[in-house]
Amino acid sequence: MKGRKIGRAIAAAGIVVCSLALLQRILTPKVTDGIIERALIAEYYEEAKDHDVIFIGDCEVYENFSPAVLWEKYGINSYIRGSAQQLIWQSYYLLEDTLRYETPKVVVFNVLSMQYDKPQKEAYNRMTLEGMRWSASKVKSIYASMTSKENFEDYLFPILRYHSRWSDLKLSDLENLFQVPRVSHNGYYMRVDVKAAGSIPDPVPLAEYQFGSNAYLYLDKITQLCKDKGIQLILIKAPSLYPHWYDQWETQMEEYAKEHELLYLNFLECTEEAGLDFQTDTYDGGLHLNLSGAEKLSNYFGRILTEKTAVTDRRGEAELAAVWAEKLAVYEQEKQKQYIQYGVN
Amino acid sequence: MLFTSYQFLEFLLLLFLLYYLLPAGWQWKILLGASFLFYFYAGPVYCVYIAVTIVTTWFTGRRIEAVRAKRDNWLQEHKETISKEEKKSYKAAVKHKTWILTLCCLLLNLGILAVVKYTNFVISNLNGLLEAMGSGKSLDFLNMIVPLGISFYTFQSMGYIIDVYRGTVEAEKNPFRFALFVSFFPQLIQGPISRFGDLKKSLFAAHPFDGRTVCLGLQRILWGFFKKLVIADRILTGVNTLIHNPEIYDGAWVLVGMLFYALELYADFTGGIDITIGIAQTLGIQVTENFNRPYFSKNIKEYWNRWHITMGSWFTDYIFYPISVCKPMLKLSKFSRNHFGEIIGKRVPVYLSSFVVWFATGIWHGASWNFIVWGLGNWLVIMVSQEFDPLYKRFHDRFPVRGKFGFRLFQVVRTVLLMSCLRLFDCYRDVPLTFRMFGSMFRRGNWNIFLNGELLGIGLSAADFLVLLAGLVLLVTVSLLQRKGSVRERIAGLPFWGRFALWYGLFLAVLLLGAYGVGYDSSQFIYNQF
Amino acid sequence: MEELLNILKDLHPDVDFEKEERLVDDKILDSFDIISVISEIAEQFDVVISAEYILPEYFNSAKALYALIERLEDED
Predict the structure, then answer these.
(1) What is the CATH number of domain C2-75?
(2) By CB count within 10 A, which of A283, A322, B185, B475 is most buried?
């Protein structure tokens, strides 16, 4: 009798746990819903973790650099841990997270996010944080990122966040329950379409040009972490025409790099050298580069990496080369697919 | 900490563990700690206010008993030597002394309540007066802190001191136990207003863990969450759209708004009370019921015996009775009988005292004229229906409809509609506007809104309406079932998997259909502000 | 006692006040009735029942109420 009672209780608990887990999966938005950026952070964990270069930062890294080119041209094995509006503390904790698995030779950080000193938007937080595997870094990142309306519990149990999606569920939510298609190429989000840069809005004068103390705090932490692990940190500013990169910001970054003896590259100043043409190399009027732009920039940056850092050409490593051969095939396939999709040649 | 916040649930879980894992003798002390933590979290300054009420009330109670003890000793000692007359006058003197003590305590605490809640109301009326007299001056409003739940805990404490004065309860000796009575966190912010005599029976006792009681308590909490999150907070969007834009939503919309508000207020307030009583139950403590399916009332008078019961009975016991049976009132009654005849004379005490009570009830709900008019509106309806009583009797003698389903339904609909109309004062918070909106219902003639899809334009989607409809059906069903006793007890009699399906189903309903989290501005319980 | 029963009968002719013992608990007498009864008692017995005595134990039956009246008369 007692045994039966216990058995019953265990069965009931099992039903509760399994049904909640299933519901959570059904209700959580899927990559296939159109917002591909959701998947970027999580895909990293499927990789063999043996990268020489890790990029961290916002859309200015994951849309502007193509690790495929870095491999093909220079034999550099790289990965981009980028996400939409990745805030600097999120970058820091992503770096911490990455270093749990591997220690690259070079870390590249895009400094645009220095402009944000405080949590910004829940939707973007989600894109960066949800993909991370659970770790102390993830917990700290969540606490650093939450806006005043957010709760940690909503991250712990996403069903609490997405419970009301039941009325928007589509068939695709069920179709893609257990298989998540791969969307990035080592963190690179490919777009082949073209939308030439037209008139860029005039920069709005700011009340305050000094980057915030919180932003500096995390920049310091990134610098220190790299130093402790013997990693060369490179600060970059990607060549996006918009959002505007102010001269006052540039000065601060130049000074910071000088003070900490870091390499700082502002690609806005070498677009010509890199061969970028904002009539053909952007898909959204100058915010982000398209495939053509990203490949040109990667080509240019690969040379710098080869010259100024300790990365070596690893194309001779048979195993790695085999992995990349496969990746390049997928990359090529996607390119062709998109050329057709967007009608570009 | 809102009842519906994650922090509150975590706070409860932690409290629950401590409460049942530590020695039972500590239980009430743990509750006291938790209550002050809860209140401190709401606002550190609030603790000062509640502490003043606790200390003064406790001290007055003790003083009253000390005076009485002295009286009894003195009477005992002089039993043989004093005359009956002397004894009587001595007793009267002591009684007067205890009355003075009680009065001081009442004046101080009700004074604090009046100052924090009504100063700005008084100022705004004075300014109105100044303006009317053509004076260019006006007074500045004060920036008052209104401690959370001050109306509730003040009333609860004042009920206690009056009970001590009347001798119906013994004064509490331990100030900390008394502090727990005043600050008991589940009922601190929205009632019920407990009586010391009722609550002390279970509040300070040791409660060993009892699975059945805890389960019943948890089930009640869940049901409260269902009412609050699935129904009240979901319909809130629609209610707000309607009542905050009276210039757009008039005519038939007023009817929609008041019915929606009737549902929201019911689900919100009774849901909150379910959570309160449920929490207390999981801790082994019995809190007085505050509702008894009010919308099923035959008339408004009965409604007020079934809605917010503890507030109504507070006003009856501590204001209505004392005023109606005090000597001047009895004299006035006698005077009116002699001068205006039996019929009027009989009514004087009831009419006058209930006028005062409804005025007080109105102003208790909020420091503004709309609430006062609302309170007096209730008074008017009750008195009119009282006067119609003989008419009703004759009607029932001729048409035996009493107890028939159709007539019961008519009574219920009438109660809901009447209460909803009166609550328009609460919705629009402006007396002339309320009258205008009420009038527009009969003039505007835009009844087609029920058919042309405009209902979907007030911030509620078709899915919302579906959920609300299902929720309403469940509410009514449960209410009907409750006529035959506790629904939870009956569910407890079902086979295991039946119980599991019902409760887990309700849990999933709250989890999935509840209007909470990012994207919903989790609303405060409506009654917090009173 | 006869006088008291008459007062009560006036309010609710259909109730058997000699037998009924749950006048308040069963809500036969509501607050308005209680006030009427008290003011009638003040009129006819010259006894004031103050608010502290308005408790179910005194108002649940005519007998209990009568006992209260006698007690208060005695105290005067």
Answers:
(1) 1.10.1200.10
(2) B185
